[in-house]
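Form 7-S
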Amino acid sequence: MRARLPALALVLLLLLAGCSSGGTRDDGRITLRFQSLAWQEESVEANKALVKEWNATHPDVRVEYVQGSWDSVHDQLLTAFEGGEAPDIIHDASDDLADFAYGGYLADLTDLLPARLKSDIPRRSWETTTFGDGVYGVPFLQEPRVLIANAKWLGQSGVRIPTPEKPWSWAEFRRITERLSGRGKYGIAWPLKEPVSATLNLSLSTGGQLFHRGADGKVTVRFGEADQVVPRTIHAQADTDRSASPTTLGSGGSDTLPGFFGGRYAMVPLGFSYRQQIVQQAPKGFDWQVLPAPAGAGGLTQGVSPQTLSVAEDGPHKKEAAAFIDFLLRPPNMVRLALGDWMLPTGRQALSDPALRTSEHGWATGTALAEHLRPAPAQTVRGYPEWKDKVATPALQEYYSGAIGLGALRERLEEDGNLVLARYQR
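Output:
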């Protein structure tokens, strides 16, 4: 369940900001509000710099930067949409768009975006923001899940180091984490405070799907054998092999870094952007490297929910808002945004930039994984936020902690989950 008070507080701040901006002024100048969720210092600087550059060259269409928060964006946007105070340009994630798109809150961008932008971003990325016959967001940043490893530890152990060309299988990964463990140290630390996206997205590598859409368009949950490989592996590492630290299962990604730096864990599965925190926080001389996540029947395929830019349906200046998005996502600018967020751009031209293909900090490993990224399983599922919060998160947390078995997990995900989704598909 999302925290309500912080969300409402943020809404009030944004609404107050909105009262003095937006629309067309008496002098004919248009003002657009751009709500950004950038939070890392480099990312905020990159976004603000691009807004400043736009304003310097577009005197008749001024963009006002508004700071949002990932922690409360869904509730904040819902309140803003219903109150008629939504920002003109909206930064979000693709797995949060379905209800807003189907609810009529977001503009269809099909005829508003230039051909350049449409062709530069691959079709698989556009699928993450396509609902029905419309496109309701521009996917622009994405990140694979990778293994951040203690390079010295792995080197001394003699284990085979995986590459994108020759990754570990899930079975090999389990054996290696067990080999790396012992004497109070663990081969892996899974930070699974938010277990749903990690489990579902990594399960695409094993052929998992979980959400199945019928001929009538309705979605049902089926937790089959392919969907079970990843959670079974994690459960076995934590409960059977003792190769995964049990204390990190309820932690966030950042919470595992002190133990990683302290030599307690050999590897931590994290989003690609966590590399920035590692660069900033790692002790002097700490040697780390980026490895691809394990591969299964689906190869290195992973699900991703790209960061997106959308336009509010009620905004009076949709063409101008789309023009600003086009400016923000020109290839050089997309590179700047990617470097600021330590993520990968979706655009082909930006992804080919040499700055994103260096071996330093694992950039080359990340870009090698970009072609394997696919829409996350939940992308177009209405009711997913409620299913995730009320059903899947507590069920997976209980399974990983050993409180329930695989059969009970399956029952919860399918029976309870389908009851929730059914309410959105009537």
